[in-house]
Design a protein that fits this description.
- The complex is a heterodimer of chains A (370) and B (208).
- Chain A has 370 residues and is an alpha/beta fold.
- Chain A contains twelve helices and 15 strands.
- Helices cover 38% and strands 24% of the residues of chain A.
- In chain A, helix 5 runs antiparallel to helix 10.
- Chain A is elongated.
- Chain B is an alpha/beta fold and 208 residues long.
- Chain B is built from eight helices and eleven strands.
- In chain B, strands 2-3-1-4-11-5 form a six-stranded mixed beta sheet. Chain B has a five-stranded mixed beta sheet with strand order 8-7-9-6-10.
- In chain B, strand 7, helix 4 and strand 8 form a beta-alpha-beta unit.
- Chain B is elongated.
- The chains are: A alpha/beta (370), B alpha/beta (208).
- At the A-B interface, helix 7 of A face strand 5 and helix 7 of B.
Chain lengths: 370, 208
C-alpha cells in the first residue's frame, strides 16, 4: 500500500472546497436535520442503500433523519424553468449502506439546477476535478454517459430484465457474464461484442472517443458522444484532462440519471471519494422542468490516509502528591507553558498518560524547597 | 507492486501456478513454512493466503488489489468489485439437493438448510416460493437426513457425498468457478499492470 501519501483532514478539505465553490458564485445551502419520511419514501431508489432512520414527531408525522442532500435541494429549487440555482453544501447525512449499520456521513458537494446550458455541465465537471486536485495531486476522474449506455441497451430491444442484468454485468466489467446473458437471450454476436467492448473500455478521455464512435448505434448514442466530445475539448482547454478516463462501469440508476456521470478516486483510498452526474430525470419525476447536475465528496474517507497525529497527550507531565506545595506546581507549570509546551498536571502516577518528559514533584513535602 | 489475495488450499495452489505461468512468480511461496505473506520485488507482486471466503473482503476494502474467489462467494456477498475473468478452474455447481424421493409439497413452507442464505433467498424469491432458511456452517448434507430441513442449497462438485448419503441434486441454481476479481480503485491506479495480467491469464485459460 502507498503508505507515504498523506492527505488533509476532512475538516480542512471541506473548508478549502467550500471556498472554491464560493469563488464560482455558488451559494451555501443549509438544511435541517429532518424531513418528512414520505418525501424520501417516494424517491427511495434514488438513495444508495435505501435504509433511513425514522421517528414519529409528537404531532404524529413520520419523520426521517436526512439520508441525502440532493433531494432536498431539488425539492426547494424554483418551479420556474428559466431560473438557475447554484448551491454548495457541507452536511451530515445518516444512512446504512450495503445492509450495514447506520452511520453519520459527511457529504460536501454542489448542485446546479434550472435552465442549464452546456457551459454549466462543463463547469460542474471542471469543479469536480478541481475538488479532487485540492485533496490530492494523485487523483483520477472517470466519466460515463448514461445516454450512451441506455442507447446501446435500447438498440438490443431486449426485455427489461435482460437490460437490468446487462447493466449489472457492465458495472462489474464482467465479460463472461455479458456473454452468458447474450447467449441465453439470443442477442446477436455483433451486439454482444459491442457490449463487451463498452464494459471493457478504460482509456484516457481523448483516446476513448474514437472507440466510442465505432460503438455508436443510434441517435441517442450519437447525441451522448457529441456531448462527451464537447466536454473533452473544454477539459483539454483548461488543462484538466490529464487523469480523466472514460469508464462505463459507472452506472447509476437510469430512472434518475440521464447524461454525463462521473466518479473520482484518490490513490490509496480503496473507495471512490466523489460521485456525481446529471439527473434531469429526477427533476422530471418531481414535477419540475429544466436540467440538473451535481456531485458530492465523501470526505470521511480521507481519514484513512491522514498523517499520523501526535501520539503524546502532553510535552511535560508534572506528577505531584498531597505533600507537594501548590505554589511549586503552579510556578513550574507556568514556566513550561511560557516556553510553549503543553503541560499536564496529575496527582499520583503517570498511568494512562504519554508525555515526552515527566517532572516528578512527589515526595517533596513542605519545607523542602517551597 | 500488485497485492494479490489467494484462497488458501488446493484451489489457491492451482491459481498460483497460473499466476507463475503469467510471469508473476514468487519462489519463496513454495517453501514449506508458516509465513502468510510472500513478495517478489523483481516481478512486482506480493501474495498472501487468506481464507477463501475472505478474499472478496480483502479485495473490496483494498488490502489486496486483486484476488481469486469462487463465484459462490461473489454471488452470496455481492462485494463491490470488478469481476474480470472466469479462470475456469474450481468448477462445480450451486444446487438444490434433497432426499432421492423428495416430493415438493407447494402447500407447505419449504425448509432450506444452507451456508448461502442470500443465494437461496434470491433463488426462491424469483420462483415466488415461501421458504424458511436454516443457516448452517458445515455438514449441510445431514440436515435433510435428520429432518431438520426439506432440502439444502449447497455446492456440488461430483455429487459423491450426496449419493453416499442417499441424497440427490434436484435443481442447479448456478454454475460456479474461480474468478479473477479486482478492487475498483486499484483497477484505475494500477490499470496497466492489472490489464496485462488479466490478458495473460485469459491466454493461459484459453489454452487450457
Amino acid at each position: 500500500m502507498a503508505a507515504e501519501i498523506t492527505l488533509p483532514s476532512p475538516d480542512a478539505a471541506a473548508r478549502s472546497l467550500c471556498s472554491l465553490y464560493k469563488q464560482y458564485g455558488y451559494r451555501h445551502f443549509r438544511m435541517s436535520k429532518f424531513e418528512e419520511y414520505d418525501f424520501y419514501a417516494r424517491n427511495k431508489s434514488f438513495l444508495v442503500g435505501g435504509s433511513i432512520i425514522t421517528f414519529t414527531e409528537p404531532g404524529g408525522r413520520l419523520m426521517a433523519l436526512k439520508p441525502d442532500v440532493t433531494l432536498s435541494i431539488v425539492k426547494n429549487a424554483g418551479a420556474t424553468p428559466d431560473a438557475t440555482q447554484k448551491v454548495y453544501y457541507n452536511e451530515k447525512v445518516y444512512r446504512a449502506e450495503n445492509g450495514g449499520e447506520f452511520r453519520e456521513i459527511t457529504q460536501t458537494g454542489l448542485e446546479c439546477v434550472g435552465a442549464l446550458g452546456f457551459y454549466d455541465i462543463s463547469e460542474v465537471v471542471t469543479l469536480a476535478i478541481r475538488s479532487l486536485d485540492l485533496v490530492s495531486a494523485d487523483w483520477i476522474l472517470d466519466i460515463s454517459h448514461m445516454g450512451f449506455v441506455s442507447g446501446v441497451l435500447a438498440h438490443l430491444g431486449a426485455s427489461e430484465r435482460t437490460r437490468e442484468a446487462l447493466v449489472t454485468a457492465i458495472a462489474e466489467k464482467n465479460a463472461p457474464y455479458i456473454e452468458l446473458i447474450c447467449r441465453e437471450n439470443g442477442v446477436a454476436d455483433e451486439d454482444r461484442d459491442r457490449l463487451c467492448a463498452l464494459a471493457g473500455l478504460y482509456a484516457p478521455f481523448r483516446a476513448s472517443l474514437d472507440t466510442l464512435s465505432s460503438l455508436s448505434v443510434n441517435d441517442q448514442t450519437d447525441a451522448a458522444l457529441s456531448e462527451l466530445e464537447k466536454l473533452c475539448r473544454v477539459l483539454e482547454a483548461t488543462g484538466l484532462d490529464r487523469n480523466v478516463n472514460i469508464d462505463f462501469s459507472i452506472v447509476n440508476d437510469m430512472n434518475y440519471y440521464n447524461g454525463v456521470i462521473f466518479r473520482g478516486y484518490i490513490n490509496g483510498i480503496p473507495q471512490g471519494v466523489l460521485a456525481g452526474g446529471s439527473y434531469d430525470s429526477l427533476l422530471e419525476k418531481m414535477g419540475k422542468r429544466g436540467r440538473a447536475i451535481g456531485f458530492a465528496l465523501y470526505l470521511d474517507l480521507l481519514e484513512q490516509l491522514r498523517a499520523p497525529g501526535d501520539r503524546k497527550d502532553a510535552d511535560v507531565l508534572i506528577l505531584y502528591d498531597d505533600d507537594t506545595p501548590v505554589g511549586e506546581i503552579l510556578r513550574l507549570r507556568d514556566e513550561r507553558a511560557a516556553a510553549g509546551e503543553r503541560v499536564r498536571v496529575q496527582r499520583g502516577t503517570d498511568a494512562g498518560v504519554t508525555a515526552a518528559r515527566i517532572i516528578d514533584l512527589r515526595g517533596k513535602g513542605d519545607g523542602a524547597d517551597a | 507492486m500488485l497485492n494479490v489475495a489467494l484462497p488458501k488450499g488446493r484451489l489457491g495452489e492451482k491459481v498460483y501456478a497460473m499466476f507463475e505461468q503469467a510471469g508473476k512468480a514468487c519462489p519463496s511461496i513454495r517453501e514449506a513454512n508458516r509465513k502468510l505473506i510472500f513478495e517478489s520485488e523483481e516481478n512486482g507482486v506480493r501474495y498472501f493466503w487468506v481464507k477463501p471466503s475472505d478474499v472478496a473482503i480483502y479485495v473490496e476494502r483494498g488490502a489486496a488489489d486483486i484476488g481469486v474467489a469462487g463465484k459462490d462467494i461473489l454471488a452470496e456477498y455481492l462485494p463491490d468489485i470488478y469481476e474480470l475473468l472466469d479462470l475456469n478452474i474450481g468448477k462445480c455447481r450451486m444446487c438444490v439437493a434433497g432426499k432421492k424421493d423428495f416430493y415438493d409439497d407447494r402447500e407447505r413452507v419449504l425448509r432450506v438448510a444452507t451456508k448461502f442464505p442470500h443465494i437461496a433467498r434470491e433463488y426462491y424469491a424469483a420462483k415466488s416460493r415461501e421458504i424458511d432458511i436454516i443457516k448452517l456452517n458445515g455438514s449441510i448434507e445431514i440436515a435433510p437426513i435428520l429432518g431438520l430441513s426439506d432440502v439444502i442449497v449447497d455446492i456440488v462438485e461430483t455429487g459423491t457425498t450426496l449419493l453416499e448419503n442417499d441424497l440427490a441434486p434436484l435443481e442447479t441454481i448456478l454454475p460456479i468457478s474461480a474468478r479473477l476479481i479486482s478492487n475498483k480503485v486499484s483497477f484505475k491506479f494500477k490499470h496497466e499492470e492489472i490489464e496485462a495480467l488479466r490478458a495473460e491469464l485469459a491466454r493461459i485459460c484459453s489454452e487450457g
